[in-house]
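Input structure tokens:
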């Protein structure tokens, strides 16, 4: 199967999932406590971005000049995981630790630790890059959600510790 065909199939399956997710998100009703974004704002945005990515992938598959045939290989490709199930279990463990620490450390610290540990698990070894991602991910995502979208995120035990 060619790379182009794989990209087209992936784009079509992804678009079908995005459209079904968008239809499902439109059915979410706002409660009396809903903010300006609404209960369906973020899910509809995610579905829209996914749909745009699938459309872009579909059109990209038509613009490729070279045709490569994907053949099964006995050797592991560079950059791939030899044990994808171990990687999945590692990610599951990291998410479990994240969910456990979130009420105590708050969103900003927890998401920074999650980003750094996932990057390290995925193979990032430049300490400065990983550290910079850890230090910037929390504040940037907090600004996006808490400040810009007014979706309040958990603060953890920090207010209790510093007000005592």
């Amino acid at each position: 199967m060619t790379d182009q065909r794989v990209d087209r199939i992936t784009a079509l399956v992804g678009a079908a999932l995005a459209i079904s997710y968008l239809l499902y998100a439109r059915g979410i009703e706002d409660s009396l406590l809903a903010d300006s974004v609404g209960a369906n704002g973020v899910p509809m945005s995610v579905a829209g971005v996914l749909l745009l990515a699938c459309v872009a992938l579909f059109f990209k598959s038509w613009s490729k000049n070279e045709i490569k045939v994907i053949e099964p290989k006995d050797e592991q490709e560079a950059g791939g995981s030899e044990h994808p199930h171990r990687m999945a279990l590692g990610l599951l463990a990291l998410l479990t630790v994240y969910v456990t620490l979130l009420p105590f450390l708050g969103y900003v610290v927890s998401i920074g630790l999650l980003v750094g540990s996932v990057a390290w698990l995925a193979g990032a070894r430049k300490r400065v890059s990983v550290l910079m991602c850890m230090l910037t991910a929390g504040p940037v995502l907090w600004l996006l959600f808490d400040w810009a979208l007014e979706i309040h995120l958990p603060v953890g035990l920090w207010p209790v510790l510093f007000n005592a």
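The two ends are 64 Å apart (CA to CA). Helices lie at 3-26, 41-63, 84-122, 127-148, 158-163.
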